[in-house]
Amino acid sequence: MKFSIQSRNDSLSNQLMEAAKGYLTDFGLVFDEEEPNIVVSIGGDGTMLHGFHKYKHRLEDTAFVGIHTGHLGFYADWKPKELEKLVISLARKEFNVIEYPLLEVTIQYRHSGDSATYLAMNESTVKSPEVTLVMDVELNGEHFERFRGDGLCVSTPSGSTAYNKALGGAIIHPSLSSMQLTEMASINNRVFRTVGSPLVLPEHHNILLTPVKGPDFMVTIDHLQLLHKDVKSIEYKVAAEKVRFARFRSFPFWKRVHDSFIDDNG
Ligand code: NAP
Fold first, then answer.
1. Which atom, in ligand 1's list, is nearest to the CA of 155?
2. Sequence ranges of the domains in the chain
3. Cα of 51 to ligand 1 centre, how many Å?
4. Which atom of ligand 1 is nearest to the CA of 68?
5. Nearest of 247, 261, 153 to residue 200 by alpha carbon
6. Does pTM surpass 0.85?
7. What topology does CATH give the domain 2-95+248-261?
8. What is the CATH topology of the domain spanning 102-240?
9. Residues 48-90: pLDDT tens digits?
10. CB of 100 within 8 A of CB of 245?
């Protein structure tokens, strides 16, 4: 089995990275940054996002596992002191692989006719470089609403505990293959109307955003942000690809929600 390590690059994470590399090599695993079967992420959930984007071209052959060197994470749920246990379980292949849904984002450009497709593990947001974003929202080919406001966010279930949660979105269990659309400060008055509630859409549904005002938009894909010019449309759907995590012990999602947001000693 080949492995790679993604570190947040602070001194504790780098120290653990060196220790993990040594232990895993001692147990006969091969360090391979190009084609790893296991990616050990050491840092936080943000570090896991970086690891995911580094290896998103080989998701079928890669499983991720995360150690947190700060607070408990949703992707990074192993403690540093559990490193040796983790290494032994990896070496003995004593783990299950679980899969979480991803988001596929396709941006079409007007004049060139080109398009670009991205995969997000947490979410994608759209904002305007001007103050107000104005976009028509279509669901499965039917006009749904004209959105005016700060922006829109489409998240995966595992990303629902991140930006989506701050926007008042629901926390979605990652076994539900779905995506969630949330609003950022929509303008609602006698003239302008949006639904106001987060929408949860299943697989095979799609969200199409078409610009009403301005062809240029700031689009984020997880931690990556780009200004896209001359945009014709932005389409969201649940991706065919999934991200795979190595699970060594039971740590139910709702327990992680409880420990992260309510009480980590309870
Ligand atoms: P970052 O500062 O590393 O991430 C922001 C925070 O989001 C960190 O505390 C990170 O946890 C946490 N986080 C990431 N994924 C999460 C998840 N699935 N569930 C719960 N918390 C999660 O910033 P970054 O590296 O640019 O990361 C981009 C992410 O930040 C985006 O995907 C977005 O979800 C999030 N974000 C949140 C807000 C908000 O809540 N208002 C605003 C913008 C962006 P760790 O400390 O463990 O890394």
1. 34
2. 2-95+248-261, 102-240
3. 14
4. 47
5. 153
6. yes
7. Rossmann fold (3.40.50)
8. Tumour Suppressor Smad4 (2.60.200)
9. 999 999 999 999 999 999 999 999 999 998 999 999 999 999 9
10. yes
